[in-house]
Amino acid sequence: MTDTLESREASTLPPVELREAAGAVAGTGRRGARWWSGVGLVLLIASLGALAWTPGPLVRPEGFTLVTDFLGAATTPSTDGAFLAVVGSAAVTTVAYAVLGTVVSVVLGFVGGILSSEVWWLEGRHGAARRRATAGWIAVRGTLVLPRAIHEVIWGLVFLSVLGLTPLVAVLAIGIPFGAVTAKVFSELLDESPRRPYRAALAAGTPRAIALLHTLLPVAWSDLLSYGFYRFECAIRSAAILGLIGAGGLGFQLALSLQTLNYREVWTVLYALIVLSAATDVWSSAVRRRRASGARPGNPVIRGSLVAALVLGLFSLWWVQLDLSVLVAADTWRLAGQIVTDAWPPTLDVPVFELVVAALITVAMSVLAIVLAVAGGAVLAFPAASTGAPTIGRRVRVVATRAVLIVLRALPPPVWALLFLFVMAPGLLPGAMALGVYTLGILGRLMAESVENLERRPQQALQAAGASGAAVSVYAVVPAVAPRFVAFGLYRWEVTIRETVVVGVVGAGGLGLLLNDQLTSFDYAASLTTLAVVVVLTALVDATSAGVRRSVR
User: Cα-flanking dihedrals φ and ψ of residue 59, to 5°?
Assistant: First the structure.
């Protein structure tokens, strides 16, 4: 049981992003740190002030009865045979969507990673050829920014409008944005690989593609596979979220049960989702753990996982009966063309002031969510960390804390948002709480891993000098992990700003709510404007987060 719950969430960050986050640990950058600390404090105060935009009282006391009923049903989930069969089928559908979406993302990431890598365009080129190659490199990387910045729920809503209710909607909605992210990571893996063999092959006249495939690819390939298993872990959650907008699977069943307020059925679906998320978490962590220890592809776990992935892929194709002919159907292209025509030029269906307010609420939502997640994650990281003597009490504490973290991150943000909307007025607060609780589950495990990986000698020196446990924590543990905690929080803030769209879809406010209203009313020109604002906000948050990390290196 302990091994099952000790899946290393810190490894869910790809190697490149882990190294980027770890860079925040080095150096002091006191002037930059003070500047950004002041900016962060101003953002937090402004975000708290934004709660005043919520009309009426923030908390609805009458909703606590619903919460009590909901929590009370946790001990008596529905065990009706027919419903269990439906849930089982929905769980298989969710896994199938995740598997096929991951396959698409790995294929796109492989091709896009090569075409967006610096070594593909610039290595071995000089003068005018290098300038032309630089323009191509920038163009490819710029092209990948847009699909990466748009959340899979938005892709799902667009594909639903074009393709209708078909399994291809979920597969493409997961595969395209995940593929763009995978391409970014894979390109960085290629760029960071040792280049001497590649340069030698180019100098000998070997074609660029063949040289890359024989020199750089073998070095980065295993990391790409490891990252693919991480993406599968994320795809399970994304598949559940897409179900909430009608794509099928566990999310769809969850939405139906919530609409009828059948809480016993809701908990049956939630338990299925938690078990599914925990199982994929354990599987992907086992693969990454062996990859991190230097295991070769012939390792039984890695080899068995590759075989299982192949079988799952073939089974998923059969299960969902994926029909690719819809992509070349005349109606599909007619609808796609109509959407493009309707969307351009972009327009505003709300006053500029309202759009700006929605954007500010979105930023405030992300700030409050990440502050809650960092604070909560830091508190739970220490009891979740497997350190010290393996006593029974410590093991129980670790297992219990990690079980809580798994539940927090297993439930998608829209589900948390719906629960908070029971007792909170629609708007900023329930969205921030939903994203904060979900992100807490992720950061808590990341931070626990940081505590486990600390250098033990400073602690041992203090203990040998007679320092108390509290003194060891204050002087050796907290100062060592605090910079890394901040780095992980900054990384997740970049993700959270995109996920504000998800909770907006279920009515939590901000740009997500506005965008959902525009898409459901088929106002594509206004949707394009709102989406552009979301992309700009994402870019600004990414740039701010990167600036903070650079300032403290």
Answer: -110, 140
Residue 205's SS3 state is coil
Selection from 389, 452, 305, 499 nearest residue 11 by Cα: 452
Given a contact cutoff of 8 angstroms between Cβ atoms, the answer to whether 414 and 506 are in contact is: yes
Instruction: Label residue 306 exposed, middle or buried (CB < 10 Å: 0-12, 13-18, 19+).
Output: middle
* Residue (of 194, 6, 204, 216) closest to 114 by Cα position: 216
**Phi then psi for 424, rounded to 5 degrees?**
-130, 150
Give 474's DSSP letter. I
| Eight-class DSSP state of 73 | G
Within this chain, domains 63-341 and 352-548 share the same CATH topology: yes
**pTM for the model:** 0.78
- Given a contact cutoff of 8 angstroms between Cβ atoms, the answer to whether 110 and 180 are in contact is no
48 is written with which tokens? 């708290």
CATH number of 352-548: 1.10.3720.10
Exposed, middle or buried: residue 265 (CB in 10 Å: 0-12, 13-18, 19+)? buried
Match 């990986």 to its residue by tokens.
Answer: 453
Relative orientation angle of helices 524-551 and 127-149, to the nearest 10 degrees: 110
Choices 3.40.50.10800, 1.10.3720.10, 3.40.50.2300, 1.10.10.10: CATH for 63-341: 1.10.3720.10
Distance, CA of 65 to CA of 201 (rounded, Å): 70
Q: What amino acid is encoded at 433 in this protein?
A: M
17-22: list long-range contacts, CB under 8 Å, 24+ apart.
Answer: 17/185, 17/491, 20/491, 20/549, 21/484, 21/487, 21/488, 21/490, 21/491, 21/549, 22/484, 22/487
Instruction: Report CA-CA distances (Å) from 539 to 190, 373, 389, 536.
Output: 24, 21, 45, 5
CA–CA separation, 332 and 340 (whole Å): 12
Nearest CA among 506, 387, 522, 537 for reference residue 447: 387
Name beta bridge partners: 424.
59
CA separation for the pair 342, 485 (Å, rounded): 45
User: Burial of 497 by CB count in 10 Å (0-12 exposed, 13-18 middle, 19+ buried)?
Assistant: buried
Q: Are 354 and 481 in contact (CB under 8 A)?
A: no
Instruction: Say how far apart CA 52 and CA 406 lie, in whole Å.
Output: 33
Per-residue CA distances from 250 to 2, 148, 304, 320 (Å): 27, 25, 27, 14
At residue 479's C-alpha, the angle toward residues 408 and 403, to 5°, is 20
**Per-residue pLDDT tens over the stretch 220-268:** 777 777 777 778 878 888 888 888 777 778 888 888 888 888 888 889 9
Give the Cα separation of 482 and 451 in Å (integer): 10
- Return the closest-CA partner of residue 291 out of 212, 192, 220: 220
Query: Quick one: pLDDT band at residue 201, thresholds 50, 70, 90?
Result: confident
* Domains of the chain by residue range: 63-341, 352-548
Q: Averaged over 191-205, what is the pLDDT?
A: 81
Alpha helices in 51-80 (DSSP H): 64-72
